[in-house]
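Action item from last week, closing it out:
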Amino acid sequence: MKKCLFYLCFALVQTQVFAQLYVNKSDATVIQFFSKTPMEDISASNKNATSVFDAKTDSIVVKVPMNKFIFPNGLMQEHYNENYLETEKYPYAYLKGKFTTPIPFTTPGTYTSSITGNFTCHNVTQPRTFPCTVVVDAAGVVTVTGKFDVKLADHKIDIPTIVTKKIAEVIQVDVKASYVKKQ
């Protein structure tokens, strides 16, 4: 039993010593989406995502509360939450992936990469690759930005026929997340 406890403690210490975890700064992650159609443009913004990445393994995890997207009008927000994304039933979207190219997170500069992994939205998981830009500033703050498209049909998000001309089949998503090294 003592041997088992020793190995468990050793493993925990090793994880803390060698992990290089970065966490997103409070309110410093902004996810916006945009739907453009000839009849109507729809946009929304969310500042409530949580994220962490490990610079040692290049792994990243993002969790987005889907009911926290803010729309310019309350009716749009209600329809989004109740009719399309069904946020009570599917409250979060997730990305679990890895940066595709090693990034020197301790060296200031601008780096181009992608994140490859599994994106889950509306309880449907799809393998995806998202291009991104990583900026490391002199203070050690890491900012990841990216733009990508999400096809609603890929995530079984149904749009009623009556409003199909008002909602794009493919939604444009912009992400900007700033991280600091976990102490």
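Closing note: Helices lie at 2-18, 74-84.
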